[in-house]
Design goal:
- The chain has 241 residues and is α/β, with parallel strands linked by helices.
- The protein is 23% helix and 23% strand.
- It has eight helices and twelve strands.
- Strands 1-12-2-3-4-5 form a six-stranded mixed beta sheet, with no helix packed on it. A six-stranded mixed beta sheet has the order 6-7-8-9-11-10.
- A hairpin with a 5-residue loop joins strand 6 and strand 7.
- The chain is globular, with a radius of gyration of 16 Å.
- The mean pLDDT is 95.
Length: 241
């Protein structure tokens, strides 16, 4: 039940920076782990959930792919991913499982979809909101947070996608408007949630820090056995105003 019925987290965030229109509706997901465990039928259901929210943009905070792109190609999952409806685009940061699956092969597969992968790069939306994707920590040569911010206009809103939610105090000190992460699965199975709570400054859910708004997804799907105990799969609908 906890796995098959993802919770939809609805979050409203008021910023003191201009965003163009009156609001920006974001659907944020992470840790879909497409592969043999999460196949095309489940993906079709997830895409339906996303589209029913009528988002302006969709962001994917890593681990879209599980351990190999082979089952995605076999089932032609690019067909379902191409059905995501977001007029301002679909953006993704890499996770550790994209590295496990082979970054080059993942890039080739994702090139068949509308998903724009951001690897230490930034895209500005028409209203001025900036989406910055950090490469995963698996890349030891990824840009520092300051290096990534040097590509941004700090006078305008900055949303960072960073798969693994480490060093969140540093994010807050840099006054990032919003960071979206995943990776933890909130432990997935009790009592592992106590371990993730101990490892990470924020292991799941939404929190307003001193300056930054941070959301850590428990994962739209999961890794390994198809069940959760004491945790819930989730998807966030974030409205920026």
């Amino acid at each position: 039940i906890n796995y098959r019925n993802p919770r939809i987290e609805r979050i409203e965030i008021a910023l003191d920076k201009p965003i163009g229109d009156k609001s920006l509706k974001i659907v944020a997901v992470s840790d879909v782990h497409l592969g043999h465990g999460t196949g095309k039928e489940k993906l079709r259901r997830y895409v339906g959930m996303i589209n029913r929210e009528r988002p302006d943009i969709v962001v994917i905070a890593g681990d879209l792919i599980d351990n190999s792109v082979a089952p995605l190609r076999e089932e032609r999952m690019e067909e379902e991913l191409s059905g995501i409806e977001a007029p301002l685009g679909v953006y993704m940061a890499l996770g550790n499982h994209e590295y496990i699956s082979g970054v080059g092969e993942c890039a080739d597969f994702l090139a068949q979809t509308p998903i724009k992968v951001l690897r230490d790069s930034v895209v500005a939306l028409p209203g001025g909101v900036q989406i910055a994707g950090r490469d995963d920590r698996m890349n030891r040569n990824r840009l520092s947070l300051d290096g990534l911010l040097s590509k941004c206009d700090v006078a305008r809103p900055i949303i960072i996608l960073d798969h693994q939610p480490y060093n969140l105090a540093e994010v807050d000190a840099a006054r990032i408007d919003l960071q979206i992460s995943g990776h933890t699965h909130h432990g997935q199975v009790f009592p592992l949630n106590f371990i993730t709570d101990a490892i990470y400054e924020q292991s799941h859910g939404y929190r307003k820090w001193t300056y930054s708004h941070i959301y850590v997804s428990s994962g739209l799907s999961l890794w390994g056995p198809p069940f959760r105990i004491g945790t819930r799969s989730d998807m966030a609908v974030i409205t920026l105003k």
